[in-house]
Amino acid sequence: MIETMIEQYRVRVAQALDQRLPAADLHPGDLHQAMRYAVLGGGKRIRPILVYAAGTAVGATLEALDGPACAVEFIHAYSLIHDDLPAMDNDDLRHGQPTCHKACGEALAILAGDALQALAFQVLCQDAAMNQSPTIRLRMLGILAQAAGSRGMVGGQAIDLGAVGRELSLAELENMHIHKTGALIRASVLLGALSHPTVESTQLEPLDHYAKCIGLAFQIRDDILDVIGDPTTLGKATGADRALDKPTYPALLGLDGAREHARSLGQDALASLASFGAEAGALRWLAHYIVERAY
Length: 295
Known about the structure:
Blueprint: H1 2-20, H2 29-40, H3 46-58, H4 62-83, E1 93-94, E2 97-98, H5 100-104, H6 106-126, H7 134-148, H8 153-163, H9 170-180, H10 182-194, H11 201-228, H12 231-234, H13 240-243, H14 249-271, H15 281-292
Antiparallel strand pairs: 1-2
Helix pairs in contact: 1-3, 1-4, 2-6, 3-4, 3-10, 3-15, 4-6, 4-10, 7-10, 8-9, 10-11, 11-14, 11-15, 14-15
Protein name: Geranyltranstransferase (=farnesyldiphosphate synthase)
Family: Belongs to the FPP/GGPP synthase family.
Cofactor: Mg(2+)
């Protein structure tokens, strides 16, 4: 039942993304083709699914959630384009396909990432189905901007670059990933919840804690999969973290320790949903999935 709902969210956001992306034949066509290549080429869609799951948990309509779901995925896609560039992680594959800069050229890939970042905020500003007040919409814009910027994802990436070759403490490693990975996951949950016009702070606070926990658990599992994952299943090469001498949870805690830390965070996330009923079933399913996923 829940897995069927998750798949429905995945199908829904794919359609919503297609509708909100510029058409490939709209000038400048090369840029719009690169944007569509980066966004529609696959992926788990965890962040937009979290938007739908959190919004559903507080009673938001799916129509009101389509815009925020697309906005977070556009930010995520832009970040992957830039992360894959030669100046960053220098990856050749993403979702089993050539990365955007390999398929479209490095310059066009950079521009596609830039354009997707701008499109995310345009969608939040203009999406007609969002029925929030101007005050709430501004709050949502601020949440996404902070999650994407120097105090969120981009800042975490800068910390990551500066940590290459260094041994970090657990607190330093978690601080890096709270920003690099966790910030956008947290924003996804909050944007979903705020898509209901009368959501209450007593609902937002436990959802925010849930998001912080699964954001870290997601990164820990990513680190584990870079060691033990199947490249065919993952759609990208493994062992990149070790090759680049990056600090990771398995390197710091060992594989068993990293697994246990992820499970502990997953249990903490589930505990934060105690005040929610069956309407938070998708959020509970996602907490389990994030901790145990194979890709």
